[in-house]
## 1
Amino acid sequence: MPVLCLIANPADSELDPALAAAVINETGGELNWLNHAIACEIIEPKSTDALALAREVIGARKVDAALVPNENRRKQILIADMDSTMINEECIDELADALGIKAQVADITDRAMRGELDFAAALDTRVALLKGLERKVIEEIRRERITLAPGGRALVHTMREYGAYTALVSGGFTYFADFFAKRIGFQEAVANVLEFDGERLSGTVAKPIVDKNTKRERLLALAAERHLPLSQTLAVGDGANDLDMIRIAGFGVALHAKPAVAAEAGIRIDHGDLTALLYLQGYS
């Protein structure tokens, strides 16, 4: 039994009863509000092309639409990317800013996230440019420049309350992932290790690099460890290095993602915050 979800950004919702009614007029089904004026679900839409019809009715309004099965909707594993997903920034770009080379590094980051560059080679190139950056500066950046993405703590804590296991798996760095995983509430964090020469970055990262294969393999391992089918997993990210885990997860979500990633993901959230992942699971 399919469910059509309509989800807006809580900070600037463009979803109202009139829009929900207009969608139902095209798709059929029974309306249930999960959070009034922010998220609703249309149960058993009659149309065989309900998602396309919904998006046509929504038009340019900032409302996401997703079609999900109602069976086993609440997932038991969450695996999430960090940079530009659970936090708002790309940490490596902020480190580069401290050296006055943010534009140069950010361009490489963007191309890597779009899948235009080999991730491991691009990471090595960017980390080499950070050589000499002081540990105390990195700590300052972590403390003052990195912000949590809206809805992340609600997502993680709610899923944990209902028995799910949560993992932050990042192509970024443990210096940030370990710290923010604890702040958000994740049960584990996996990321790359920056290497130091005394109190300054050596310009290298420990091998093997955490990349798209690592993310996919960690998702498979978590499911196997908990004797769960992949249908009981949820993966979320924004970049090309997230696609492999997004493809195999029960709910694979591209969140504010690069176009190529959004095009391939089973679910795309372009406007909502991380609480959208709770509404997809039927939480109200």
## 2
Amino acid sequence: MEILDPKLQAYLDAHCDAEPEVLSKINRETHVKVLKANMLSGHYQGRLLSMLSKMVNPTNILEIGAFTGYSAICLAEGLADGGKLETIEVNAEMETMLRKNFEMAGVDDKINLHIGDAMPILLDFPDNYFNIVFIDADKKNNLNYFESSIQKVKPGGLIIIDNVLWKGKVYGIEKDADTESFRKLNDQVTVDNRVEKLILPIRDGILIIRKK
């Protein structure tokens, strides 16, 4: 998942805020108990999500793809008083762990967990409702999630999409379906005049999109 030199990543990790203890515990438990633990946002990316959320001070956040709750907890750190984070997880087997982790982090009253397919849940929210949307779910639907999310985000709000460099494959010669889907997403967002955008080379690539 890491596209940066490991020594550089270690330096970056050492020069940002420390990983909160509760998130460190979730990080360890995820790697011990859950398959594909590399899907966890982790320390450095988590601090980025926290900082972006604190800069926006959002009233409403949407997360598509909860996994074990690490990124939701990071994003919830920046919520305005009375704000809510709506997170969607397709895998019902994760519900018990998610609820436990949210309670352990003291954010269970700030987070509404939705179990099921993301698209119908997403479409039920009002337009121009969210300040931040974080997309980190099934990759083949990223473009669909983006097109739907842009209707749900307020002007000036952010859409954040994970894994957009796809292990470096997007700028290589690979032609597999997932790589091509990321190329299509990145190319379409690049020419979309509704938004400002940039890709950060963090972990597997994070696309930051601001709705005009």
## 3
Amino acid sequence: MIKSLHSPAYVVFRQVMADTREHQGLTQAELANRLGKPQSFVSKYESGERRLDVVEFLLVCEALGVEPTALFQSLLGAIHENK
């Protein structure tokens, strides 16, 4: 069984999160600063070294200035495209 961090759907999730950050014009360090976390926090969830739980996801969305529901919709669309 594929570990969930490396499943195709989670790879898409990580890419959507990184793409959204980049679309907002933020570096990993800038986003981490908004979150009050070290840059490695962002790097680790974007690279698949650690998971983002749902509460962290909501905080990241807030720091990115995006609606969580909109990001979920983007994620669902991307997952379906990559099946």
